[in-house]
Amino acid sequence: MNAAMIDEISELLLTPEEMTAVDAAATRSGIDSYALMERAGAAIAATLLRHFPAVLRAAVLCGPGNNGGDGYVAARHLAVSGVAVEIFQLGEPARLKGDAARARDSFPTMVRPLESYQPRSGDVVIDAIFGAGLARDVPADVRDAIERVSGAGVPIIAVDLPSGVDGRSGSVRSAAFAANRTVTFMTRKPGHLLMPGRELCGELEVFDIGIPGRIIRAEKKQQIAENGPQRWRDALPSRGLETHKYKRGHLVVFSGEATKTGAARMSAMAGLKAGAGLVTIAAPDDAVDENAAHLTAIMLHPIEDEAALRDWLHDARLHTFVLGPGFGVGEKARRFVAALSERHLVLDADGLSSFKSAPDELFSKFSGKPRLVLTPHEGEFGRLFPDIAADTAMGKIDKARAAAARANAAIVYKGADTVIASPDGRAYINTNAPVWLATAGSGDVLAGIIGALMAQGVPAFEAAAAGVYMHGEAGMRAGEGLTAEDLATQVRPL
Q: Which keywords belong to this entry (predicted)?
C-alpha cells in the first residue's frame, strides 16, 4: 500500500499552494467555507483557554485575509467565555472580503489599528495577521508590531504559522513572531518543520476542522514528507534465518593517511553496527599499521593507488563504498571515484570537496539507476551546486531536489533540518536529530550508516533517508555531551 494512503491526515505535509487548492476543492464539493472558519476560530480560542487560563487580555492581531477572519471568530468565542478581548487590524477592517468580512460582522466590537497595539502584562497575543501563504517581506507596520511584542515577552499563539514565516521554506520574510504555540488546520506545512520556522512555531497543534481526507489526498501533488520509518520500512532488508554475512553486504570505507585514520574508523564502526555483514577499511600503505592497532571486527585491506583499487574491484562482492572521511582533498579522491563509478558510493567530506572545481565530472560518472549518495553540509552544497545555492527564490527542499536531479544522486542536505532528496522529486525533512549531534565526526558516522544500508541492498534514496533517521536515534540514545565515538557505539539496525 502506498505510504501516503496510510498516513494520518495530520501527519501529511502540504505546501501552501496545495492547501489553497484543498480549500477551493472543499468549497466546490459543497462544504460551507464559513463553517470551516468557525471551527478554526473555535480551535484557536480553545488553545488559549487551555494553555493560558490566567490571561487578562487576549490581543487579537488580524490580517487582511482569511487568517484575520479566523482571528475574529476566535475573539468572539473568547469574549463569550469571559475573556477580555481587543482586536487590532492590519489595514482597514472594511476592506475584508468574503468569509473574513462575515467573521468581522459576527463580532461587532471596536477594532483598533495594528500600529496602536501596546503589549501589557497579562496579555496573550493571537497572531492572525498572515498565514502559511506569505511570499513577500512583511510590511513595516507588522515588523514594528513584531518588535514590540518580542520586547514585551508576552505569550503568542500563531494561527497557521507565525506571521513572517514562509510556509513553503520556513524562512523569515524580514521579521517574524516567535510563537509559544502554533495552531494549524488539517495538515502541517513544510515551514512548520524547516528551520528557522520550526523553532519559531513553538509547540505545534494540528486541528481537524472537517475537510475530508479524500479531498486533501487528491490535492497533494508534491512528494514532500517528514522523514520516518513509514516512508522506507518496506525497503529495508529482511532478517530471515537464511541470512549470512555476504547477504548482509560488504561495506568498504577508505582511510586517509596515517595521521588521519580516525574518521574512517568511525564510519566503519557505524556501518558494522548498522547491519553490514562485513566491513573493510581500505588504507594506504602508511596507514595500515595505525588502523590495524585499533581494529578487531573490522577488516583491513591495503590500497595505495588507483591501480590497486581497480585490481581489487574484480571481486564482485565489493558492493558499496564510503569515500571522504579523513581521506584528503585532491586528485587521488577523484581517481578513486572514477574507479567506483559502477558501484554504490557514499561521498562525504573530503570526497565532496575534491570535486568543488569540477562537479560535472562527478555527476557524469553516475548515470542510470541512482547509486550515489552525497552528504553535503551548507558550505559543501554551495561548492558543488553554486548556482542552486545562490538562488534566493528557492527554499531548502527546492534546492535539495534540484541538486538531486542534476547529480542523479540522493542528496542529504545536512543541518538542523536535514533534507533528503531523490532525483525523482521525493524529499523528506528530518526532525528527530537532537541539537547535540552537531559535533566533530558526526557526519562520518552518518556516512557509515548510509553505506551499510546500501550494502544490504537498500536503494540509494531510502538508504539515505533511513540512515539520517537512524543517526538521529543514535544521537538521542547517546545523550548530551556525546562524541562521535559515543555516537558510533549507539547505532542500532532498524
A: ATP-binding, Isomerase, Kinase, Lyase, Metal-binding, Multifunctional enzyme, NAD, NADP, Nucleotide-binding, Potassium, Transferase
Q: Is 160 annotated as a binding residue?
A: yes
pTM here? 0.94
Tell whether residue 277 is among the known ligand binding residues.
no
- 444 annotated binding-site participant: yes
326 is in an annotated binding site: yes
CATH of 3-222, one of 3.40.50.10260, 3.10.310.30, 3.60.15.10, 1.10.3720.10: 3.40.50.10260
Which residues of the chain are in CATH 3.40.50.10260 domains? Answer: 3-222
Tell whether 133 is in a known binding site: yes
- 486 labeled part of a ligand binding site: no
Alpha-carbon distance of 158 to 156, in angstroms, equals 6
* 136 labelled binding-site residue: yes
Q: Is 415 annotated as a binding residue?
A: yes
| 68 assigned ligand-binding residue | yes
Whether residue 417 is annotated as binding a ligand: the answer is yes
443 annotated as a binding-site residue: yes
Q: Enumerate the CATH 3.40.1190.20 domain ranges in the chain, comma separated.
A: 229-489
Q: Are 254 and 271 in contact (CB under 8 A)?
A: no
Residue 46 labelled as part of a binding site? no
CB 186 within 8 A of CB 22: yes
* Residue 112 phi, psi (nearest 5): -100, 155
Distances (CA, A) of 170 to 178, 197, 363, 417, 465: 13, 4, 29, 10, 20
Classify the C-alpha dihedral 280-286-292-295 as positive or negative. Answer: negative
| Predicted confidence (pLDDT) per residue in 185-212, tens digit | 999 999 999 999 999 999 999 999 999 9
DSSP string, 50-115: HH-TT-SEEEEEE-SSHHHHHHHHHHHHHHHTT--EEEEESS-GGG--HHHHHHHHTS---EEEGG
* CATH architecture of the domain with range 229-489: 3-Layer(aba) Sandwich (3.40)
- State pLDDT tens for residues 371-429: 999 999 999 999 999 999 999 999 999 999 999 999 999 999 999 999 999 999 999 99
**Which amino acid, one-letter code, is at 151?**
G
134 belongs to an annotated ligand binding site: yes
Q: What 8-state DSSP symbol labels residue 409? A: S
Q: Which residue blocks in 376-456 are alpha helix, DSSP H?
A: 378-384, 386-389, 396-407, 442-455
Q: Is the Cα torsion angle 298, 300, 304, 308 positive or negative in sign?
A: negative
- Mean pLDDT of all residues in the chain? 95
Is 132 flagged in the annotation as binding?
A: yes
Show the cell assigned to 298: 573490522
